[in-house]
Amino acid sequence: MLKKNKLFRWITVLGALAVVAAACSDGDGESAAPTSAAPAVPLEEQEIVVSNWAAYTPEGLVEDFEAETGVEVTLLEDHVNNEDIIGKLQASGGTGRDVVFFSGQYVQTLLDNGWLAELDHSQIPNLENLYPEANDLAYDPGNRYSVPYTWGTTGLCYRTDLVDKPIDSWQDLLNPDPSLAGKITMLGTERWLLQPALLTLGYSINTQNPAEIEEAKELTIAAKENLLAFDDTVFYEKLDSGEAALVQGWDGWCNYATNENVEFVVPSEGGDLWADVMTIMEASENKEAAHAFIDFVLRPENHVKVAELVLYKVPNEPAMEMLDPAIVKAYPNLSITPEELLAFEVLSSVGDAQAAWSQAAAEIKAS
């Protein structure tokens, strides 16, 4: 909602435009063709709503952007998961939010719903800071509709003092040593839920083959007898307490465990390359400010703060070069290179097979 002083200025502007329109009318009351387009709303008069996961925006970032640009930002930290934010967009018809963060594999879903604006790269000059590899990811080649914010991979976190041998395979999760029964968690979000089985079976993590999805579903159901829980949020706390000894997790989140015996490994069968992205909604009425916000995030001195906060890699080369070497030493996943990430399959849309994926996930959890 516009503040009162902004509303007053708009009333003044509208009044002035009315006078100009009257002056341009001919004797029959018909307006002459305008000689130029109406001026755009000044950047400092624009307001945007930014929607992100909780604790995923560095402290002070929004305030610094507001101070520099005059843009008023409302930060909604209301994502539970990707399915949750997509549900919120569905309910609003893609309105009410200007910049929305979610995971790259859902770019096509939002495009299919007509919610995403094509980005004007001329308004985001700091795109030049991205690693070359981050400009051609399979879910959105050329970053036409999204800009990667963080990226990483998925693997296994485990307590070295609570396992009898080193962990190095997805089979350690799906068919574990009996001593680990009841001390294992898996990610419940559907695009990650089937990954251990798909990678074990040698299938694509983006498969659209119904038979492969079914086989992975059955293998995952069989693994449930050894599970403590499906856990996307606090699995690292279970590792700290010893309630869990082995969990499936994203590389950065494994870093949130404080127990010195926790290690992260990408299994021998491989992992994925996921990216969380920034997008602009087609319904946004302040796209200039939205572009400016994304460009502000991509400044190295700002983007490095994201890596420091969430302990995920950011796909910004000068930002990663600014990262304190002591942090990289403490959290080895931060040293994974773009080339190493690109050795894994990029998590992308599964198109019309999404319904089959959702059905498989529902059946696994209900079994």
How would you describe this structure to a colleague?
This protein is an alpha/beta fold. It is built from 16 helices and eleven strands. It starts with a helix and ends with a helix.
Descriptive tags:
single chain; 367 residues; alpha/beta; six-stranded mixed beta sheet; five-stranded mixed beta sheet; 11 strands; 37% helix; globular; disordered N terminus
The averaged pLDDT comes out at 90
Q: Sheet with the most strands?
A: 6 strands, mixed
Spell out the helices and strands N to C. HEHEHEHEEHEHHHEHEHEEHHHHHEH
C-alpha end-to-end distance: 47 Å
Overall body shape: globular
Concise synopsis of the structure shown:
This protein has 367 residues and is an alpha/beta fold. The chain is 37% helix and 16% strand.
Map the helices and strands.
Elements (H helix, E strand, L loop, with lengths): L3 H20 L23 E7 L7 H9 L2 E8 L2 H11 L6 E5 L3 H6 L34 E6 L1 E6 L11 H4 L9 E3 L3 H4 L1 H7 L8 H14 L3 E4 L4 H7 L4 E5 H4 L7 E4 L6 E9 L6 H11 L2 H11 L6 H6 L2 H6 L7 H4 L3 E2 L7 H13 L1
Parallel strand pairs: 1-2, 1-3, 6-7, 6-8, 10-11
Antiparallel strand pairs: 3-10, 4-10, 5-8, 5-9
Helix pairs in contact: 7-8, 8-16
